[in-house]
Amino acid sequence: MAYNELEERPAPEHPDKPSGPTKLEGVAIRQALSRTLAEFSADNCTGLAAGLTYYAVFAIFPALIALLSLLGVVGQADSSIKAVLDVMRPLVSDGFLTNQVRPFVENLATAQGAGIGLVVGIVLALLSASGYVAGFRQAMNTILEVEEGRPIWILRPLQFLVTLVAVVLIAGALVILVVSGSVADSIGSKIGVGDQTVLVWNIAKWPVLLVIVVLVVALLYYATPNVKQPHIRWVSVGAFVAIVIWLVASVGFAFYVANFGSYNKTYGSLAFVIVALLWIWITNVALLFGAELDSELERVRELQAGIAAEDQLQLPLRDDRQIKKAEAKHELLLERARDLRRAR
């Protein structure tokens, strides 16, 4: 794409654009839905989701170390071990749970250096998760049909900030999941909280978890791509669809594994790893599908406003300096190639 085409892109809040999905014409909505499916395939979103799963796996292990070390520091090692084993019991064989998972979890939660494990786990989780954020940024740029134009000294601090916020939110969600049932009862008795308060917490944690999921998705959708979006939308149409797909797929997949799957018999000790990888991949597929839907809704908003977005979205870039440098370098290489051809 010629750089002058980028300079001509209109403002993200063009006055002629429909203000929201309810203002779109029926034919525009149908076109957005059909093109979402086509672009999801054309952009190889399932492959991009596999790459994101790779990055996510590297962040899970140090995050688990940090979580169990944290519970060990606050004196909830025994309760946290039981909670983790209860979560994993439907997914792996009893032998693997007893001989492999339990010793590993017990060592993490009861180690004398739990404080050191907490610090090391947090640092490693941040470094690993930053790779996931970088991968998600590249996927969003692909979906929104833009190149990365931000210099590294702007991109890296922004990437780390997004990673930090996302990790804090996800860590909070993991703590909320673990601090339930017997763990919540134990903590409640130690701090003098009554059974009624613990019951309220066990119920209220679910909407809190949903809010955390919404915040993480909104952060990834808004902050990572190299485009100036109209405004931050805490729950865009695409984000809502992604969360619904993720919830339905997660519940359905968990039900299948618990009741009909033969993972334990077929894969033995690898069953949990395979189940976890599939779930993470489903999560990333849902996120990228939601992003594709948002991008196609933006496209029909632009088309309905008379903006030529049939081939490429016309959102302005956050930064274009790296694109200018890349084009200048490409032109130099072309000129050298022409000189070589002419010299013959």
TrEMBL record:
Q: Which UniProt keywords apply?
A: Cell membrane, Membrane, Transmembrane, Transmembrane helix
- Topology with regard to the membrane? Multi-pass membrane protein
Q: Where is the composition biased (Basic and acidic residues)?
A: 1-17
Q: Fetch the PANTHER family from UniProt.
A: INNER MEMBRANE PROTEIN YHJD (PTHR30213), UPF0761 MEMBRANE PROTEIN YIHY (PTHR30213:SF0)
Query: Which Pfam families has this protein been placed in?
Result: Virul_fac_BrkB (PF03631)
Q: What is its main location?
A: membrane
The organism's superkingdom is given as Bacteria
- The portions of this protein that span the membrane are 52-74, 114-134, 160-183, 203-222, 234-258, 270-291
Q: Does the keyword rRNA processing apply?
A: no
One Gene Ontology term, aspect cellular component:
plasma membrane
Q: What is this protein called?
A: YihY/virulence factor BrkB family protein
Asked if the keyword Zinc belongs to this entry, the reply reads: no
Q: Where is the region Disordered?
A: 1-23
